[in-house]
């Protein structure tokens, strides 16, 4: 894999972790949303990652395909939690059913924060990998002086 291919792989990882972080923050923001336009409470979302060929220049892509290619990461889909919502007894709530229970999203803020920290660390690891490749390119150019 070329040095620029390594940058492309890390860039794809950064993009995937950014998408994951956006979904996590959406989950946290809607942790108490009991009514959505589609009806019912908000449903937790999570990113599903899969491998994908990295995008680079035509010549680089041609060389990588002939050499086996390099794989990056992409968000292949967004899974939506289909489990039953959490029910809380709040008889005065406008969304309460006839028994006085309100359906709330099944979101654990602590778990979401741990996932957000994990996404942040993954993003930081890809930034560090790009910085390392950038230093390698710089040092390679210094050898030609």
Name some characteristics of this structure.
alpha+beta; about 140 residues; elongated; about 50% helix; single chain
Mind explaining what this structure looks like?
There is one protein chain. The chain has helices spanning 3-29, 58-66, 109-143, and strands spanning 45-53, 71-80, 86-89, 101-104. It is an alpha+beta fold. The chain has one domain. The strands form two sheets. The protein has a two-stranded antiparallel ribbon with strand order 1-2. The relative contact order is 0.22.
In total, how many domains does the architecture comprise? Answer: 1
Through-space gap between termini: 24 Å
Helical residue percent band: 40-55%
Order of helices and strands: HEHEEEH
* Rounded mean pLDDT score: 89
How much strand? 15-25%
Extract low-pLDDT stretches.
Answer: none
- Using only C-alpha atoms, the radius of gyration works out to 22 Å
Order of strands across the main sheet: 1-2
User: What gross morphology would you assign?
Assistant: elongated
Main sheet, how many strands, which sense, barrel?
A: 2 strands, antiparallel
Tell me the number of strands: 4
Number of helices: 3
Which structural class matches the secondary elements? alpha+beta
């Amino acid at each position: 894999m070329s040095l620029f291919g390594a940058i492309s792989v890390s860039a794809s990882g950064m993009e995937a972790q950014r998408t994951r972080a956006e979904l996590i923050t959406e989950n946290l923001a809607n942790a108490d949303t009991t009514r959505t336009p589609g009806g019912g409470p908000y449903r937790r979302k999570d990113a599903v990652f899969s491998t994908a060929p990295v995008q680079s220049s035509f010549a680089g892509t041609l060389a990588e395909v002939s050499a086996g290619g390099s794989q990056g990461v992409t968000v292949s889909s967004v899974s939506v939690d289909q489990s039953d919502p959490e029910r809380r007894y709040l008889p005065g709530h406008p969304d309460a059913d006839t028994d006085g229970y309100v359906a709330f999203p099944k979101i654990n803020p602590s778990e979401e924060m741990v996932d957000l920290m994990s996404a942040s660390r993954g993003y930081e690891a890809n930034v560090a990998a790009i910085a390392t490749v950038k230093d390698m390119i710089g040092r390679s150019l210094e050898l030609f002086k």
